[in-house]
Amino acid sequence: MPALSAAVPAETASTAHAAATSARAHTPKPTVVLVHGAFADSSSWDAVISRLERRGYPVIGVANPLRGLSSDSAYLSSVLDTIAGPVILVGHSYGGAVITDAAVGHSNVKALVYIAAFAPDQGETGLSILDKYPGSQLPPSLTVRPFPGGQDAYVDPVHFRQVFAADVPAGTTRVMAAGQRPVSLTAFAEPSTTPAWKTIPSWYLVAGADHAIPPAAEQAMARRADSHTTIVHGASHAILVSHPDTTSHIIETAAHATS
């Protein structure tokens, strides 16, 4: 009788484990929403998208308007409104400020992932963060062109590789520089609102040789947000292009941790 009693719990535990494993295998993966930053477009995520899709994640590469923080965040929020299931929200560079504001009020956003990105507190701007942590080569490398109602900023192609993508092949950076999308100057000067990282768990990938957002600023923002942080020494601001495996891995880590 004792032998039978001992066998029953073991079988029950094994069955429960198998059922749990099967349930996890059939649970739909969260949608990964990728938000590019200034001087880029959704194609900057191409290598990351291909890796995530191979692992079964539905992915949306949002076309960030780059017109202003409040309007860009409102646009992203409208996209999040259309997604029924859980979301892992990822931002690169200025896109980090956009996800910080846009995720507030969206209970389906389970994690924020910052890729060499701004993660501002309430009232901060991109410019104020760069002023607080000197070392960025971005401001003196900008070319400004007026448009009706405002001014757009581009990175001078002569300086693009050094400032933005020093560890990316030169031929690739020439194409990136030629096809860069400008950002309205008002976007970097507009203050952030309530930060979503205060209530949503976050992950942060620091680019250790970033010449656009100083690594010291990235690490400080990650600490403040209590983010799970990974540092890639020698990585440029375009870390999502030069290190797509590491970038996709941190996104998957966030997805697993919050599922």
What would you say this structure looks like, in words?
By secondary structure, the protein is α/β, with parallel strands linked by helices. It has one domain: Alpha/Beta hydrolase fold, catalytic domain (Rossmann fold). A six-stranded parallel beta sheet has the order 2-1-3-4-8-9, sandwiched between helices. The protein has a three-stranded antiparallel beta sheet with strand order 5-6-7. Helix 2 crosses helix 11 and helix 3 packs across helix 4. The protein is globular. It starts with a helix and ends with a helix.
What are the SSEs and their pairings?
Elements: H1 2-26, E1 31-35, H2 46-54, E2 59-62, H3 69-80, E3 87-92, H4 94-102, E4 109-115, H5 126-132, E5 142-147, E6 150-155, H6 157-164, H7 170-178, E7 183-184, H8 185-189, E8 202-207, H9 215-224, E9 228-232, H10 239-242, H11 244-258
Parallel strand pairs: 1-2, 1-3, 3-4, 4-8, 8-9
Antiparallel strand pairs: 5-6, 6-7
Jot down its keywords.
single chain; 259 residues; alpha/beta; Rossmann fold; 3-stranded antiparallel beta sheet; 44% helix
Mean pLDDT: 91
User: How many angstroms does the end-to-end distance come to?
Assistant: 41 Å
CATH topology, by name, is: Rossmann fold
Spatially, the strands of the biggest sheet line up as 2-1-3-4-8-9
**Number of distinct beta strands:** 9
Order of helical and strand elements: HEHEHEHEHEEHHEHEHEHH
The CATH H-level homologous superfamily = Alpha/Beta hydrolase fold, catalytic domain
Helix content: 40-55%
Runs in which pLDDT lies below 50 for 5 or more consecutive residues are: 1-24
Domain AB hydrolase-1: 32-246
Pfam families: Abhydrolase_6
GO molecular function, one term: hydrolase activity
Protein name: Alpha/beta fold hydrolase
